[in-house]
């Protein structure tokens, strides 16, 4: 293919690095896992708290931006209008930014937090469980996405730069005298963004396909094993390719909207058969405590410090995961947000999805708490992250249909995450074009399938680990360089944005 040439060094270098790492994943799986495990310990010890502070700063910065006079400014020209309806816009950004994760953790995480309270305060364990779950899925996660979306959108639609991560650093050009040095530095930034995106995406795909396999095992009483996971992964990759090949309007938008409708249907199915007053009470109570406790939670201060072991296994991993998704999710959100004001984008990305996620976890979490109370003795039914939601639905009517629908929704969520990433990666490597060529979409579909299979093998390298454990360790490492780069990006954006306002 002609795009493998010196003119497209970004694509060549990125694929070379990914294929090189895939070589070790396939042929030296156990040794690779051991090295990842050792290095991740060092990263968590030295930079764990940095992740926490970065998350808090991103949230506070967005709040300040939204309530300031700058919030009225558009992402684009004054005459630009949004390309998508508000429902379609929110559906696409939510499907791309969260997706299958809310099914993976819907029951298992609140129950784990209830039985193992990470913090001890004056409120009961069920409220603490939901509050901490909100913390790990709420404002901070979406703040990482929103910061990147607004920053890259500003340079894309206001400054007319290319769809590349390095565009956010374009103001540094005047400080780099050598043309060759510019190419190396900006090329390195783009390669880093691509690698971070790929690692974050395949982590989600690996977890999601493993949950689908767990659901099929549970429903059909057949152990499909690693072969089944790879076959599921291949099917999802094929569907994602069809979607992204058709484009944003014909593929991604349709599937994303479909996802939201089914998700709301599942939510209402559980809600109307549960203790509705208790669910709404918990939702408002846990949300209130989450908001007033947000700052001490964000820096793990005093009574809100769950300890390094817990932070390592949960919060640091989550922050690394959201950071890994920030490049592709942020750029995708920017791509579909042209014509909207900064205030609308911040509210739409930071607040609306967070509140929706909170109500989701409250509905499933409180219902699971009630089921456990009715059982009398809990025998770890909801402890397995990959099967917990399917076991949960056994307590409701038409469980066979609901479990099948959940598996379909899982596949659909993964397809939208994958097709969004393929589209963004194709924009990156096709010279920053907003509508990348279909050749690049085909190529990234194949590469991501190959790399995802390697991640599945990594998650099965030892008997005492799974895909989740392997991804926790890997993402802690791969997200660090991008998180450091994000600090520079934020500083440059604030400076350039202020200067642009002054000269208008």
TrEMBL record:
It comes from the Bacteria. GO terms for molecular function: transmembrane transporter activity. Its main location: membrane. InterPro entries: BCCT_transptr (IPR000060). Keywords: Cell membrane, Membrane, Transmembrane, Transmembrane helix, Transport. The chain crosses the membrane at residues 9-30, 50-67, 87-107, 134-157, 184-206, 226-248, 260-280, 316-333, 345-365, 405-429, 441-461, 473-494. Belongs to the BCCT transporter (TC 2.A.15) family. This is BCCT family transporter. The lineage of its organism: Bacteria, Pseudomonadati, Bacteroidota, Flavobacteriia, Flavobacteriales.
